[in-house]
Amino acid sequence: MSSNILITGAGGYVWVSEQAEALSKLGISVLQLDLSDEDAVVKSVLQHDISIVIHTASAMDPSMALPLITALSKQKQVNGSEAIFIHTSGLGAFYDKTGWPAGLLRDTDAVFDTEKRLADSFPIRKTDVAVIEHAEKRGVTSFIVVPSTVYGQGSGEWNKLSIILPLYVRASLSAKAVYKFPDYSKVAGVHISDLTALYGLIVEQFLRGESIPSGREGYYFALAHDIFLGEVGDHLASELRDRGVTTNSEARTYSDEQAAATSLGVPVQFVQMLWDAGANIVAEIPRSIGWKPAWDKARFLQHIGDEVQAVVDLGKPKSSLVDSLLAATSG
């Protein structure tokens, strides 16, 4: 089976003409669309013979996903081939801080049923449910990919930085001091190359006609390893002292979440969700289809200097995430 693939959000943040031009020079066909305009989306999907969509543009807004699914269903009617929609969700939907039930979560549990029951309490959950149900109605095969804390420098033409760790590194560089979270604070992490490999593996298995979990059972949590943030702070402090940025190789601990929020430049209510979530999730489905992350915790900590250098070289992450969080709290 051959198919054209549409990747939304490929530039890393809101499209501008410079991004389109840069990607076009690489031989990539660039579509500049209002994803909420169903007629325009359907027309483009049919015109370009697209049967696979990898949606990374928004986890918060279903209006940007549902027209794409509708378009895929129409494409399926036209050419008779299967169509798939891979939606990028957010790990925050599965934290007890946002209303998810406390305790161990396995991806083989009835994740969809819980999301549906709690959909109105958190926008990412509401979007996941809308995507799965709309795809079911339209005969489109759906997958939900849930990235954890992404790190590593991307190889794309435009935005090459992730969000969470670069904000932390920038705050440390600006203050010329490293403040860390308590040693027990934990998030899950995944290198950008391992995350993209998971997307690719899902597409590859689908194109081969393999039967893999999808729809209500198709939650793919991209959890490569744990990241203990106390360790990150200690390694970062040592790295910045070696670079002459600080004079102390030991990190101090944030006094409270408000101090962390002020340093990082995010609303205080999002600090724990982004940097201190303590996710308690067992992810079996990605590995069941052959996902083998190349990066583990030891390799990540050994290359903490790469995270610093990426921020030094590339500056501020080009993302609207923080702006979205600020807007959410001000509204």
TrEMBL record:
InterPro entries: NAD(P)-bd_dom_sf, NAD(P)-dependent_oxidoreduct
Coiled coil: none
GO molecular function, one term: aldehyde dehydrogenase (NAD+) activity
Region forming the signal peptide: none
Gene3D superfamilies: NAD(P)-binding Rossmann-like Domain
Any Gene Ontology CC annotation: cytoplasm
Protein name: NAD-dependent epimerase/dehydratase domain-containing protein
